[in-house]
Amino acid sequence: xxxxxxxxxxxxxxxxxxxxxxxxxxxxxxxxxxxxxxxxxxxxxxxxxxxxxxxxxxxxxxxxxxxxxxxxxxxxxxxxxxxxxxxxxxxxxxxxxxxxxxxxxxxxxxxxxxxxxxxxxxxxxxxxxxxxxxxxxxxxxxxxxxxxxxxxxxxxxxxxxxxxxxxxxxxxxxxxxxxxxxxxxxxxxxxxxxxxxxxxxxxxxxxxxxxxxxxxxxxxxxxxxxxxxxxxxxxxxxxxxxxxxxxxxxxxxxxxxxxxxxxxxxxxxxxxxxxxxxxxxxxxxxxxxxxxxxxxxxxxxxxxxxxxxxxxxxxxxxxxxxxxxxxxxxxxxxxxxxxxxxxxxxxxxxxxxxxxxxxxxxxxxxxxx
Amino acid sequence: xxxxxxxxxxxxxxxxxxxxxxxxxxxxxxxxxxxxxxxxxxxxxxxxxxxxxxxxxxxxxxxxxxxxxxxxxxxxxxxxxxxxxxxxxxxxxxxxxxxxxxxxxxxxxxxxxxxxxxxxxxxxxxxxxxxxxxxxxxxxxxxxxxxxxxxxxxxxxxxxxxxxxxxxxxxxxxxxxxxxxxxxxxxxxxxxxxxxxxxxxxxxxxxxxxxxxxxxxxxxxxxxxxxxxxxxxxxxxxxxxxxxxxxxxxxxxxxxxxxxxxxxxxxxxxxxxxxxxxxxxxxxxxxxxxxxxxxxxxxxxxxxxxxxxxxxxxxxxxxxxxxxxxxxxxxxxxxxxxxxxxxxxxxxxxxxxxxxxxxxxxxxxxxxxxxxxxxxxxxxxxxxxxxxxxxxxxxxxxxxxxxxxxxxxxxxxxxxxxxxxxxxxxxxxxxxxxxxxxxxxxxxxxxxxxxxxxxxxxxxxxxxxxxxxxxxxxxxxxxxxxxxxxxxxxxxxxxxxxxxxxxxxxxxxxxxxxxxxxxxxxxxxxxxxxxxxxxxxxxxxxxxxxxxxxxxxxxxxxxxxxxxxxxxxxxxxxxxxxxxxxxxxxxxxxxxxxxxxxxxxxxxxxxxxxxxxxxxxxxxxxxxxxxxxxxxxxxxxxxxxxxxxxxxxxxxxxxxxxxxxxxxxxxxxxxxxxxxxxxxxxxxxxxxxxxxxxxxxxxxxxxxxxxxxxxxxxxxxxxxxxxxxxxxxxxxxxxxxxxxxxxxxxxxxxxxxxxxxxxxxxxxxxxxxxxxxxxxxxxxxxxxxxxxxxxxxxxxxxxxxxxxxxxxxxxxxxxxxxxxxxxxxxxxxxxxxxxxxxxxxxxxxxxxxxxxxxxxxxxxxxxxxxxxxxxxxxxxxxxxxxxxxxxxxxxxxxxxxxxxxxxxxxxxxxxxxxxxxxxxxxxxxxxxxxxxxxxxxxxxxxxxxxxxxxxxxxxxxxxxxxxxxxxxxxxxxxxxxxxxxxxxxxxxxxxxxxxxxxxxxxxxxxxxxxxxxxxxxxxxxxxxxxxxxxxxxxxxxxxxxxxxxxxxxxxxxxxxxxxxxxxxxxxxxxxxxx
Lengths: 369, 1074
Ligand SMILES: Nc1ncnc2c1ncn2[C@@H]1O[C@H](COP(=O)(O)OP(=O)(O)O)[C@@H](O)[C@H]1O
Ligand SMILES: Nc1ncnc2c1ncn2[C@@H]1O[C@H](COP(=O)(O)OP(=O)(O)O)[C@@H](O)[C@H]1O
Ligand SMILES: [Mg+2]
Ligand SMILES: [Mg+2]
Known about the structure:
The structure holds two protein chains of two kinds. Chain A is an alpha/beta fold.
């Protein structure tokens, strides 16, 4: 604590500057600055491909307490482009941990910043909206940094799914495991827009044989694999430019049961003729109440999205709204009235977050029966 | 579902007197609940025996009964009131147990009262440890190996199967009473016996111990539609084995991965469903093995609790209020989150700060007892601190405790330096009230966090964080010695780590004030952040603030007229709920005067720290530094220091020096009343007698004073509350002994000596003064003679033995003193009368402990009037005059924590040791006394067996009591001397053996439940061991124990009334004729 730590700054595109200390790798990184209100689960959050191109601010101030462990990862690397926290814990306390968060960030070359007023930052984003920012440990003048932010590619209108999707189809589980006692009866073709492993783990545990396909895979190729159901994964960024996937899904509708999560609902929404738009600062956290309209029950959900399907844009005759967000009334889930297709905006696989919504996976299995 | 319309009137049962394990957090939840129910249009009928609560104020419910919490009384009230429903989940264990009793006795059914909030089965499954265990196994939850037993034989069989160490926990109890950890057979048998007697259903759970596992608690809520949310997770710094109420706790959990945390959440949901908590809040405790993450369930409480109060304060989520609404049919998603005003209450709070709670103990009052902590709660209060990090929050909490600590260090405490490594290690292993300072001490002798983990099993995360603080302190101490001193950046860092100015002063060899100046000159001032339930995701409207040294300040000063009220800090014996009562009334009064009311307090159990109460709440330590910081930001028109007990008074003079404007009595008057010499001079001038006295700063001075005034002497340190370290000494030896031990208790204040007035009647007078004119609020006569602390004695209002002229004299003296002290607001005076002389024992120029009692008895909110007076109104304008003709009698009786301290001296003394109070009210003295006694939760039957043992001096006065008891049909038992004395005077007495005389002796008779009442006055030093043993046996077997003849006489009058006809029960509203 007493050696001179390296200083770092976070500069937002509107010129606001936060001073702090360097965390993870030194250097600079640019991304959209968002905040996440989950109090646990930083490892899952960092490795969630949906955070590609984003700088994540954790509102919970003490991060790193339980280190990093070999099981709670959502992909093979860190996708977030930067990490912002109030206090980093060099102490690791958990029986599962095999390294510290700082080591982990360094290993994946992630630039982070700690020891700044993350609440002030959160309030700023809440009031001004999510915006681009840069974390840097360099002495570059602020104007230059803002210029750098301006030069760098933006989030809206850009297909960043292609940067995170699988290059080739692959089968899940990744590591060969002993064959299941009962054969996995459901073949699920998974569109990978940046999928979280937890989804695959759950589907696998429920008896699905899984093949993961790149986002640009044409519908025909999917059908050629003869799936019982099709899964549309979560993923980063703006759904609109992910045109190929939207087109494929349009073709697949009605052919096989479809289930989508997060970006998956947006792709499905677009395929059905709906529209998407960007939220002011998105939903990122693990405490959002979502009402399941058919039963009236409330689920506490894990959320991570900056875009949303406009609730009124969906064809009313074909689509039934099944879930809404109780905080702001935005769309959280719908199903097609006649075709077997449904999707939710939030994360029933949680990771991190409450497990209230696991029933949706079961529902998908029912659809495939 | 919206609210139910088929119920109109709801009965709420409060938690009764403040006891260890059940304190004013239930006033906080009960008050919230009553408000919430009335807001919804229900008529609320409340029963609570505790007059010091806010909830028993007549305006908080429609029908307020201050009556014993006994089935007998409650049945009568139900019969009179005919409520549609009973809500039992807000009055702690007491209310829950009563609901079970009422239900099982068929009373609820008879009068058609529906249990809402929790049904009988739910309560039983949760509280009956055996049913709970079985239920847990049924849903696949792990519980430690063990089982429930109802007899010693069963217990022995169980032990053989699972071995030692074992943990014993009785069913249907609170605060771990009757619980213990045992390591061998010798400890086992008595521990089981005690547990069996502590449990109202004679059931104890015996489990394999999981000492050293991490302990967690989840606060949950569920509604009638099965919506389920976690409000808060709490991690105990002290691992399993130390009761959660005695543990340092931290919210949220710090060392669980999301996977682990969600496993607890899933388990909590399953458990809640299985136990059947349909609506409301509950808490569930878990233990987690630090080596492999294994988890076991410890217990569930299907009600709001101490920890739910903490969770509410920690998150801003009002659990009790929401629980009340759920109980009447609302669903979580139908209720709005007050803080955001937009989002529903159906969510899980996300917090962006860390909350630390540290308990406060009063072991000093119970010398001879083991200070080690265990599964039985012994703390009497707690402080909570909020900071952006654990370290900051901890630093703030430690300085909130008001026990002389100024942070995480023991720099100025010689005791710690002298401790051997062995003694230190030994204490650390078990935990003691000062465990944290002992950890600091351990660091200072070079022990590492890893070593300390092996000893304490405190999670390494906490230990390392503490070590970081220690390290930084060392760095600061070194930097302070360099010519440049501590630079600005380091200073800011220190503040962010929660270091107080005082602590920094110690390191720099400077005083607090110069550190403050230096800090402010460097531009380092705190910012205030909002507690908003949502980590700033939504805009919030609730002005609930904590300080930190982060950049952005969110507390914006308004341009309204504003007044700050300083609260009472953590509860302790002598300063508890009564003072919070006054603060809350103060707030309400300010608000009704249109003045912005700003509250500062750090006690999470209180109503005053409900963010709904004041216009602005600062949850902050009540130290000079923290209070002045707020004052500098808010620039109030005044601060009020007379409501929070001794805590704010200690700050008055330094704050005045800092130029703070005061409302009410001036700090100089406070000093005048507290300063012996100045006050003595004043009384002399007024010609009011006081016991002869003097001041001493050394043994020599003390002996000189004693030569002048003679023995017996009443000795005490100055500036204390609740008679801390106050004693009667009878000779030189006693005085010498006292002077050597009291010096530590007095810090830099001198010792006061007074002539002790023997056999004097004591009176308490509360009055209000507008600077000119004084009116009496109430006069109380103590039943016990002077020498028993006013906070411990029974008191009657109006007085029953007072001549007209004495009455007038008391009033006149009160007026003169109030005027002379220039009191603006409340004043409390204690008098003692011997023969015809009235002496002044003490003057407190502030709201006293008796204000709520007096307010309740008279139906006049005196704290409110006091604020009006302070605001500049005259008593004339307010229109208050004293009415000394009450058509009823009220008796206050005290409740003691002796059941937690095996070696407690149960004879009452000038040092206050009671934790709470109850009130009995009726049209006559006898019934009121008896009701008050019943309300302390000891039963006296109409007839039975009484054991009488008094010292020689008391015998003649005892005789008529014995005769009367005999006439009422009581059998009398006594040991030789007393037996002979009574037999020779014609009373039938059964002699029993003293402890030293063989078996079966008196202890055996008590244990065999053959005795229903004990009247015993102290027999002197030689009999101490016997007396301790009898006292402890009586407490364990819950036998009524009376230690003074005056109390015995009073109780006798009660018994007489009780045996003649059933008591009447009336609500306050009726007494007041409203
Ligand atoms: N099996 C056990 N092993 C070790 N300690 C235990 C065990 N069970 C309970 N405890 C300790 O005893 C304390 C009191 O037990 P608990 O059931 O919570 O009683 P209460 O009803 O008084 O809260 C707990 O807080 C915990 O520290
Ligand atoms: N001179 C005295 N003679 C007899 N009893 C006394 C005397 N002084 C104090 N007491 C007893 O001690 C109790 C506590 O003393 P008090 O001065 O009121 O202390 P505190 O500040 O704790 O209220 C009183 O309630 C009274 O019963
Ligand atoms: Mg407990
Ligand atoms: Mg007193």
